[in-house]
Specification:
By secondary structure, the chain is α+β, with helices and mostly antiparallel strands. The protein has a domain of 100 residues: Immunoglobulin-like (Sandwich). The strands form 2 sheets. The protein has a 4-stranded mixed beta sheet with strand order 3-4-1-7, with no helix packed on it. β5 and β6 form a beta hairpin.
């Protein structure tokens, strides 16, 4: 019986451990290779104004695994613009929900919007939505700001300058 070679055993363990770590890192990198992707909404009314109080949501349609449904239903849309028209629904590269989902977009005084969608892996989708007002409501036309030319002083007119005035200054 010989003396066990502990250095050789340690080296073999280190090589095996490094191989496992590199294999796991490579598979994780491949799964997350696309980073974030998802669904981007642009919600306007019939005349092109941003709609306030928009509520977008996704629900599973058809057959789904509980895990796929959880990926989608556990996330929420986030606002992407200050003018209330842009929304995003982001997925990570390792999340790949299969099946179809129904996109619902609702807002007060507007007819609901509904569309069936799927999530192609690592591909962004942009959907432009025009919400229609309910019957009896009239759209508000967007007013463009009027650009007024700067006033130029008239020729041959003496220019006056405002002087500061204090209450304790008596004439």
């Amino acid at each position: 019986m010989g003396i066990p070679n502990f250095q050789g055993l340690r080296l073999a363990r280190a090589i095996a451990g490094a191989t496992i770590v590199l294999t796991l890192a490579a598979s994780k990198t491949l799964a997350q290779s696309c980073g974030q992707y998802g669904l981007f909404l642009n919600v306007l009314d019939e005349v092109g104004n941003p709609v306030h109080g928009v509520y977008p949501r996704l629900t599973p349609t058809g057959e789904h695994t509980p895990q796929d449904s959880l990926i989608v239903t556990s996330k929420q849309f986030e606002r992407t613009t200050e003018d209330y028209r842009g929304f995003q629904f982001l997925l990570e590269g390792n999340e790949q929900p299969k099946g179809t989902y129904t996109l619902y977009v609702t807002a007060a005084d507007y007819l609901p919007f509904e569309r069936e969608i799927a999530f192609p892996y690592c591909r962004n989708q942009r959907i432009d939505i025009r919400l229609r007002l309910q019957s009896g409501k009239k759209p508000v036309l967007r007013k463009k700001p009027v650009k007024r030319p700067a006033k130029k002083p008239a020729a041959n007119v003496p220019q006056t300058k405002a002087l500061p005035f204090a209450a304790d200054n008596a004439l």
